[in-house]
Amino acid sequence: MLNAPDGLKILSLDSDEAGLDLPSWPSYDHDEVAAATDALKRGCVNYWTGDQGREFEREFSICIGTRHAVAVSNGSVALACSLRALNFEPGAEVIVSPRTFVASVSEILLAGALPVFADVDRRSQNITPETIEPLISDRTAAIVAVHVAGWPCDMPKINALAESHGIAVIEDNAQSLGAEIAGRKAGSWGDMAIFSFCQDKIISTGGEGGAVATDNEEYWQRCWSFKDNGKCMDAIEAAAAGPVFKWVHNSIGTNGRLTEFQAAIGRCQLAKLDEWVEQRNRNARVLVDCLSAIDALRVPVPPDDVRHAYYKFYAFIRLDALRKSWSRDRIVKELVAQNIPCGSGVCPEVYLEKAFSSLLSRPSDR
To answer: CDD domains from the xrefs (predicted)?
Structure first.
């Protein structure tokens, strides 16, 4: 709904014209299909045989405002790369939001660290410096600041807190590509930032995709190496100088490369990002104006210095203001019946997943 290119027109549910004719998402324009097809026709479909992946990385770093970017196969791999780039000791702690996708937590565990959940702000749904600080200990290695639904965390204050304790900051920007804080892109504030280009994200590189962005040269090289089975940049350059086989894998990694046809799609969509995010903001303003007039709804809006990316639009129900015959589930059902996309429980308390039932850091109450 937020991606509707021609804007939103609000109609009463009892109107004869109720409902919306909305475009599907993701939607691939002719230039994106042509770019992907061209990569396939040329047969240069791998990062090492084509140039689309490298160009996408270059253009993505420019877009975010960082020195480096690493294109990867999905957002989970991006987080895996960034966590391993920190080289923390086993048993280290990583502070993270409980309001996030499962990978934000599972990748911390897979990297050998323990997730510690900070509470979220009622308005933004993000972790804050005030909820993070009491959790910092001598075992804390990093903070994963998840920008929920397109609304970025208070990165200036989180950065200041982290710096005072010598803690790394990873921005989980999977849901907030194009968001800004004080005119500066979300994803350019932390030591590293990760992104997702899954099928429902603000840009989608053919169903899956991701990236890491950073200004740190060492972190960039470690992320680049980890996503390519531990290859060493210097060893590869030396190997390219002659025909004799050389060993080039200096560390342990995995194969998390983005394909060339996906990178080609990403380059096309990246050029449209600002326009798309602006359209999402225009559509969101229509929803804010309409829904804010309903007493039973609480509709948070960001401060003036924050540009929301509006991956999702949240409205919260004031149960005490609802008519007795209505409930959250009925509201969702009625809207869906009118072809208006609506759901509940997006990014709920991830610690309630069965996979994390044994975590000692689970909050005692919700």
So the answer is: AHBA_syn (cd00616)
